[in-house]
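Bug report (template v2)

What were you trying to do?
Predict the complex of my protein with adenosine monophosphate.

What happened?
Run completed; filing so the output is reviewed.

Input:
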Amino acid sequence: MSNANLYALFLERFPDDPSALFLDDVGGRRLYYSEIPRRSGQIHALLHQLGVEKGDRVVVQVDKSIEAVLLYLACLRAGAIYIPLNTAYTPNEVAYFLQDSTPRVFVCTPQNKAALAPIAAKAGVSAVLSLGASGEGELTDALAGVAASEQIVEVAADELAAILYTSGTTGRSKGAMLSHANLASNAQVLFDYWHWRSDDVLLHALPIFHVHGLFVALHCALLGGSRVIFMARFDVGKVIAKLPEASVMMGVPTFYTRLLERPDFTRETCAGMRLFISGSAPLLAETHREFEARTGHRILERYGMTEAGMITSNPYDGERIAGTVGFALPGVNARVADEHGREVPRGETGVLEISGPNVFSGYWQMPDKTAEEFRSDGWFITGDIASMAGDGRVTIVGRAKDLIISGGFNVYPKEIEAQIDELPGVRESAVIGVPHPDFGEGVVAVVVPDGSAGVSEESVVAALRDRLARFKQPKRVFIASELPRNTMGKVQKNVLRDSYQDIFA
Ligand code: MLC
Ligand code: AMP
């Protein structure tokens, strides 16, 4: 049996040239392909010393850095399960992830170490290490004198490489279990589908704790042996300054609307670009058209999710149609189905269901949740409402799941509502997403007081500050005497969305 370890696939593709650059950090630090085996091997050896064996979890909540990428690669090599967390999560939220995933090792930022170490200890984590944005911290210190491991742990195709937490409709986050084969198949398909070239230069301004920045972007570059302009975050001025060196950029729609707001973002800025890719949230057709008018480039929109990586993509050579997400990727099967899982006629809407080598195996320790989201024939129910044209082109028209996507981050209303409903003086609340010029959708809460204590926009905002990650917190809170309900007693969120649709206009 050959080793299905994803790291082994990458290693095969690393350029022979010792001067081939992988991560070109705009802060001035660099990682060459030729350094990856030794540096990731050293971290692998350290993990081993800390007791990490195949199948053990390693939870990581750190800023974007070269070392963070090496830590990911080291976990792959070790056959450990990598679990990245959004840096915006509060200690309160991190506690849940640690308790749920019971990692052997937890790596956090130096500034969060004091607050998180006791939480990790309570969750039974035996080793907590710090890692800072410039690679400083206990993890790096601990590598001094550690000899690099040369091993790439043997794994089977279906063994787990990562667990990525995705919020759920019940308010409890679910860990999507992704195998080495899930990730490898998706990476190879995207590499071919988007005509990746070894001389491509990827501008990388996405966070590396989600599918988009970690897997889609970095895996294509690793397979191509390509250079990555590595930016700590999306800073529009820095992106405009660096784009002339790049040939590919991947981003969420907010990246594109922010670029278009800048008069110094021009056709010349993009002269060397081959491909702009958008995903994680719907790209407005208007943004697509404006972008083409400004730069001459037609953004290639694709569609995906944590549970499956990339699912559909507009074609590289064929027509990229604004407002559509293109075709099921090679090897991926997609159907638009009714509530029983029966395919509806082409052109009609229904819920998109998928199967393929990219689709995850289930949610970590949640067999019931897993069973709910798969059909008996093994197809996964995405929860996205779509239509499929006669030629197979897919358009996402809505969501069956109660989900808000703000600047590419998912926010499940239930989680926010649960926090608000616990506040003194609150009878109930409804959280909705309404059009937002920068984030696509903005989170809004409508709160009904019970009269027992004073409740105001300010008091709700203040109370949520330490409980929820900043991006989940409502940008506006409205106090209402009641919530609109249908005859079944269910809150009519569509009515609320209509009432508040212009507040960010
Ligand atoms: C930051 N803030 C947000 C926010 N990001 N609020 C709502 N939604 C967001 N996405 C908060 C900040 O904390 C700050 O709060 C205020 O909003 C303004 O911050 P900013 O400086 O303008 O934000 P910035 O750092 O520039 O971040 C915006 C962003 C970032 C769009 C660049 O959110 C981002 O990188 N998003 C990408 C997410 C992503 O990678 N998604 C992929 C998921 S994978 P205050 O009050 O403190 O000032 C997936 C599958 C797939 O979905 O298909 O790809
Ligand atoms: P996540 O759980 O963060 O992976 O988010 C996945 C969800 O993002 C999908 O289920 C869709 O609802 C949404 N999504 C991703 N890409 C697109 C896109 N191109 N158009 C519309 N929605 C998208």
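What did the reviewer find?
Residues 6-19+30-182 form a domain with the Rossmann fold fold (CATH 3.40.50.12780). The mean pLDDT is 97.
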